[in-house]
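re: that complex we talked abt at group meeting.

here r the seqs, copy pasted straight from the sheet so there may be weird spacing, ignore it
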Amino acid sequence: MIKIEDLHKSLSGKKVLKGVNLSVNKGEILVLIGMSGYGKSVLLKHIARLFKPDRGRVLIDGTDIGPLNSRELTKVRSRLSFLFQGGALFESMSIFENVAFPLKEKLGLKKDEIRERVLKELDQVGLSGAEDKYPGQISGGMQKRAALARVLVWQPEIILFDEPTTGLDPIIGHAILQLIEELHRRMNFTGIIVTHELQRVFKIAQRAAMLHEGVIKAVGTPDEILSSDDPVVRQFINGDTEGPISYR
Amino acid sequence: MDFVRKLGASTLKHVSGMGLMTVFLVKTLVYALTPPFKVVSFIKQLRFIGAQSFFLIVLVGSFTGMVLALQGYYNLNRLGSVAFLGPLVALSIIKELGPVLAALMVTARAGSAITAEIGIMRITNQIDALEMMGLNPFRYLVVPALFAAVISMPLLTSIFDFVGIFGGYLVGVKMLGVESGTYLGEISNHLDVADLLEGIYKSVSFGVIIAWVSCYKGYYTGTSGFGAEGVSKATTQSVVLASAMILVWDYFMTALLF
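got the structure back, here u go
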């Protein structure tokens, strides 16, 4: 469903991606791991075409999204959603308005239908009763869940999760992952999750890939990654300070 | 050799920056001329740029008129031409000080806030979120600001002109004893429709500059720094660039319209 071929990208003169090759099958969840600042979010943004590659291609169902014009891109993006690290909720809107926004502005649904769908999604993420609050009035965990509701209200085929549990306490983080797993079972979307929460996220993923120094260092089932002999993968999984990965 | 490399890099950066800014304006104008229009966003911006600048414009306009009358009276008195105090105040304000000072005030109050707001939306991925929904950020953020600034500026300038002339009247007539009939009569003798239009044309073009620069700097926040520092730098650059462009453009407009 998603195929990344020889993707290269430099940002501020620094080569971030140096030939990434990766494919994600329809309906599977792939976990993308790697050191902070090594380009995982940059890779996700290429799949959403928020970034254009210096070289290489991103194909969605065989279509290279690089050269698409804005109308064609809108069509591709209507199948795709992105859960940003900080939620990216519109701060001047209430939670209800945030979730309703794409339905109202893009799909032009009637008020009653919008209300029904928004309240259903908010209930699904455990935010019933918080619809009139503003993002600044709720906790980080609630903001993440509200952002998840806004992502789901589209009913997308592909969801890109950029560190969905970062900054949350273990219980809320776990609840969000359980929610993603449950929704995946129900909606069967294709997902890529960028995370550092290896043990918990590996339980809900079908495959995992490690991005290191601009290339995919390892890819396989979560068990294969956890039992990998590659010293780089091993050091990362174990969180060792000594090894081939220099963190300084 | 290092100096030449740095000079070349700096030149390239500035030229590409100017190109990007021009493309930004062209895109804004194209979206401004083609539907759909975001009426709610436009009304919000009109309220913010126009209505909420009202008291600042009244304050600055009245004191500008008052100080002009004070200065004008003492200087004209030396030449024995106090009768021309009214035209001096009115023409200075309507043709020059009204549009320019009103634009500088709106730049400082609203332009900076627009840059900061769009900049924060950029660094917190809210603009990316709009794009992911298949919605065009220009239509939601930039075009409404452009329309609001272009409509607000002539209105705010007219208010500035009115209170400025009235401020001059208070000082010249009520404080310094110039005849009321002389002050107002000489204004009507020396003021043409062309003078009024000059001020209006200028204020409309300043509205374009304010919306263009403040939205552009906010939209590309992060190119000169990241996070809060990036927003702060973008806001400063926005106010400085818009103010400088207003003053430079004012010269060319005056030379063209004279």
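couple things i noticed - The radius of gyration of chain B is 21 Å. The longest helix of chain B spans residues 85-123.
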